[in-house]
Design goal:
By secondary structure, the protein is α/β, with parallel strands linked by helices. 34% of the residues lie in helices and 13% in strands. It is built from 6 helices and 6 strands. The longest helix has 14 residues. Bound molecules: magnesium ion.
Length: 187
């Protein structure tokens, strides 16, 4: 199976880092779970200013990883073709690529050796059998193509999405992939 994997909110705990920086700068006590829709600005005192973190190249240098991502991607990488698919802003691409090389060394991860890294906002154009993503729009757009399976990485801001497979962590994702590989079908 060719598996497309989003980065922010899936491989990296981007929201956790955003909330940490925001709380420091604005002296607030926001939790990741408080962000209940994609429009983060609605849940912070600084409004639209919150998005400026995403346009700071330093933000992408050392983002924390989601639990279990290294061990599970390590195992999936041996059985499936993994492709990173991310709408990373241009300003963050260099630091992001460097961090990916650091956390997924090329001698351990086939998808890094093969440079399966695609920076695009149009994930529906990518030739994959499955997309694991946290952004509602990406899930719906990919589903609409009929190319494959859209799987939601669970966050409070995407809980309104029904009728999609949803996983709460990387171990659940591995279980989903393994059980469907055994059955030999995605239906
Ligand atoms: Mg994302």
């Amino acid at each position: 199976m060719r598996i497309g994997i989003d980065l922010d909110g899936v491989v990296f705990d981007t929201i956790g880092e955003l909330v940490r920086l925001y709380n420091l700068e604005y002296d607030d006590n926001l939790q990741r779970e408080d962000i209940k829709s994609w429009e983060t600005a609605r849940f912070v005192k600084c409004g639209e200013e919150i998005y400026r973190y995403f346009y700071d190249e330093a933000f992408y240098a050392n983002l924390p990883l989601m639990d279990g991502v290294l061990e599970v991607m390590g195992r999936l990488d041996k059985k499936h073709e993994l492709v990173l698919v991310s709408d990373t802003p241009a300003v963050g691409m260099v630091n992001r690529s460097r961090q990916l090389e650091k956390v997924f060394p090329v001698d351990q991860f086939r998808f890094m050796r093969e440079k399966n890294i695609i920076y695009t906002a149009r994930k529906d154009l990518v030739d994959i059998d499955l997309l694991l993503d946290d952004k509602p729009e990406n899930i719906e757009d990919f589903h609409r193509t009929g190319k494959g399976w859209a799987v939601v990485f669970d966050w409070p801001y995407n809980r309104h999405l029904r009728n999609y497979r949803r996983i709460k962590n990387w171990w659940e994702f591995e279980e989903l992939i393994e059980s469907h590989s055994r059955i030999g079908a995605l239906a």
